[in-house]
Each structure stands twice: as structure tokens, then as C-alpha cells.
Amino acid sequence: MVCFLYICTTESAPGTTLNINRIFLGRCLEYQELTKGTLIQPVKVNCTELWSVFAKAWIHKDPRSIVPSDFDEFFDTAKQTDLPKDKILLWSGTYGIAHEYSNQGRRYVTLEDSLIGYLVNGLTWCGMVCSKCDGINYVECPEFSDLPREANQAFWGGASRTFARTSSGMVRLMVSGTNENRQAYSKESYFGQFELPSLSSDVHLQVILVNFLDKIPLERCNTGSLVALQKDVESRGLSYSCTENPLDVLHLMCVSDPSATKCEIDRPTDVLSAPPSLPDVLSGRVRQRNELQDDFRVE
Amino acid sequence: MVCFLYICTTESAPGTTLNINRIFLGRCLEYQELTKGTLIQPVKVNCTELWSVFAKAWIHKDPRSIVPSDFDEFFDTAKQTDLPKDKILLWSGTYGIAHEYSNQGRRYVTLEDSLIGYLVNGLTWCGMVCSKCDGINYVECPEFSDLPREANQAFWGGASRTFARTSSGMVRLMVSGTNENRQAYSKESYFGQFELPSLSSDVHLQVILVNFLDKIPLERCNTGSLVALQKDVESRGLSYSCTENPLDVLHLMCVSDPSATKCEIDRPTDVLSAPPSLPDVLSGRVRQRNELQDDFRVE
Lengths: 299, 299
What we know:
Number of helices of chain A: 10
Order of helices and strands of chain A: EEHHHEHHHHEHEHEH
Helix content of chain A: 25-40%
Oligomer: homodimer
Strand order of the largest sheet of chain A: 3-4-5-6
């Protein structure tokens, strides 16, 4: 790492995302303006102050020394207590499909659609102790696996816990039964460690087991780690159900792989025999000014 | 509208999006960092300068006086000449489903996934002439329909033209045949006015006609305005094809409406007879640090 004067940076940094403060601020301001059309209630927060609260948790610190409580003030300030009932989607090992499914807070709400996750999703950050720099390491951050467990999980563990605590009603959990390298459920996962213990006991947990179409299913709802999951959920007093590739999720997978055998739809040749009647008036198109007020049929 | 000193603002502004400059800057910085995992090539641009170029097109001006050339410098500065061949998705009257389909530049690239559209998608802006304000009207912007056509279409018309000019190979156009208030194709649409005339003649235009499942189809590929579209496309020397509810798009609609008749999938009861073999080693979960490096099967 090389620092000159107060600037420690490089072009191809595997360290802190460049301009993280301005990206954070922009996202925060945007989140307050543009939740219309989603399931998320408008949020009022002082974004500059929120950045300060976030930053003081890790700036000018050795990333190995971070402890979970460092982010407590941030979680307290940014948490949403009015997340929509019955619409929370937790995920474990299914980031991509879970986020296609949630559709940016329009169909369901994931941690990354909530303010805490939205602000920093995809960003990297770590601090450094030095007298002549801004306390942010833009050059390199330690691999998560090189960090003490406490430091590694400080942010996303606390974020997951906060999110689960504010979830209510029927909560969905999307897991995968076709990953050779990890079971659908493990006590060691973020879900197992932070989310399950933080769910209210009146939550109904509905597990969505995703078995990707091009993979061999290694687990089913009544086998493998799902049995352990049901036990752990019920022992905490929550009710439980599990469904494998429910129709909507199956269709979602079929978008990327429509020729898969399991995607076969019986299509009649439904050609109109008479020409359709069309409205005479063409409406001029007004370009999207606010995507979130839009629906599927207007422009 | 009420202005005190240099500040003209209100809590529930139907005018310019509050903090538009910081939202723009954040999006611009983010776009440069986070295109990994999408079909979009990394972009290098001076974001502060880009804001200045954008702002000077409309700040301190009466919105009724804006002309298309005001944004030329912005489009020149922000345009991407390396958009992916065969992956461009144009849309007309289909904002919602087109963007679910493009999946934020992962499956296809829409105007709003390109830098020009990304920076301001969903935002509202207009200027004002006044000596004691910052030239931005945060209180009210004219309805598009109240503006002279030139001013109305200045930004999104030019943006659409710029995007179409940089499209190549097979270009898809998603239109809807189930909207009672507008035909699938009209010469007056943004596509008809700005995109079609700007496509290179070696482009193949593939029309995706979306007939929403809960609506009566008013048009088919070989009827109504689609006939006119084919004629207009071919008279410009482009090749043309049209497909109604192709399988992947049908599946996408079925995600929201899996019980629709047209979504019926023949599902065998595929229960495993023997317990699946599971890997012995549980891999610890590492939370998403960069969503764009992620794929569907890792976390």
C-alpha cells in the first residue's frame, strides 16, 4: 500500500470502494425520494449524519479490531420498524434469484432493499490506523476469511439481525438444494446465526427451496438439512412450512432457461381469427419521469 | 412557490427531486464502480464535470424554453460506444416488464441501464429564471403535456436517439398489444420518433410483442400497428422479425400470475426415492460484499 500526503489510493483498488461516502450519501438521499411503487414506506433520515454514524464505526480502526457493537448506533439510526408484514424475503446462498424475485422491493423486501442493506450493498470498506491519512484504506481490505469471526460478521451479522427483528407475519426464506458446496441450511449461515434467533415467535417461516433446473437436487423439503431447519424453527416456537420450486419461482428460473424440460408450457396456437379492434386514438408517449410510479402497462 | 433567500424548496415537492445533484453524483460514481456482473463495460468519466454539463443545460432556464440541442454536450460526454452487441432492449409502453426482463443490465441493456438513463431515471428536474435562487425549481415542474413538444422531448428524445445510435446487432423492442389506450407501435412514440430513425441499417430489429395474460390481446404480430411497424422498419433497410409472448417473457409474466391458464406447467411428482447424498463439509457463508460479482448459486 502506498500513501502520499493524506491520500491513500490506487486505480484498481481491492480496498474500500472509491468515493464510498458520496455513493452512500447519494443512495441515502435517493432512498428517501424513490420508494414509491415499492412495498417500502417512505423514510426520513439525516443522510449526512447517517454517514458519520456509519463511518465512525470503522474509520481510523484496524479492520481486525472491529466488534459487532461498533455498528449498533448505525443500525439503531437506520432501522425501519414499518417493514411490510408478510412481504419479507430472507435468503441464504441464493442472492441472485432472491433479488430477481423481490424485484427491488416491488414483490418482496430483502435486507438489501431495506435502508441498511441498500446503503452499502456491493460496497467494500475498511479502515486503517495512520496519522497522515483519512483513516480509510482504499488499497486493500482483508479477505473476510482472514478476519477474526467477530470482525468478519460485525456488519452483515448485525444488519441481518436488525432486519429479522423488524420482520413480521409470514416471512419467506429462500435457500438452495443444488449447491454442492453448501447445504440449504446450516446453523453457521447468517440466517442460522443471526436471523432465525431474531425472528419473533409469532412469525410463520415459509421456506422456499430452490432447486436450480440445470443441477441435481441434493435436498428436498423433507430431507437433509431442511429437517434440521424445521426442528430449529419449531423449537423456537415459530410455525414452519416448506415448498420446493413453487410455481412463481419455477417460472422465474424458466426465464433464463425456457427450454428446460420442467419449463414446458402447453401452448395452444391461439391466433385470432378476426383482426383485433383497435382504439382509434393514439396516445402520445410520455417518457418515464418516475419509474416507481409506473406500472407494467403504462409508460 | 415560496423562496426564502437562496432556497426554494418544499417538503412534498412535485418539482425537481430534492438533492438531485448529490443523487446524480452518487449514481455516477457508483456506475463506474459497480458494472461488474452486468453486460456493461466499465466507464470512466469525471462525475463532477458531468453534473456541470447536465446542469447547465437546464438550470437558470425557463423549462418551456429548453430545446433538444441544450443536452447535446451531455449526451456526447456520457454516451457509451461499447454497449454490448445483440443485447440492447428498447421498450415502448412496457417500462415495468422490460426492466424486469433486462434485470439491471444482466440479461439485456435498456436505456435506463446505460449511463445516460441510469443517472436520471425516475428523477424530475426543471429550472427557473430568478436572481435570488439557485436556478432550480424544487416546488413545481410543468407537466410534460403542458410543455412545447420540443422542450417536453428534449431530454428523453435525445437520450433515446443517442442510445439507439450506439446499438448494434440484434436489437430487441418490447411493445404491448394489450393496452387499450395506445397501440403497440406509433410513429409518435419515442421509439418511432427517435429510436427507429437512429438505428443503423445493419441492425436486425426483433419485436417482442407482450400480451399481458389478464388482458384481451388487441394486436398480433401480423395485425394492427405491427404491420405498419414492419413496413417502417424494412423501408429503412433494417431486417425485421416479431414474436408474441416468447417463452422467456411468458415465464416472466407467469412469475406474477402463476395460476393463469397460459402458465400451466405439467409437473410430475418428482420425489427422490433415496435420500440425497450431501457434501460432508459445510461451507461457511460469506455475506455479499459485491453483488455484481455474485451469481445465482453463491452467496
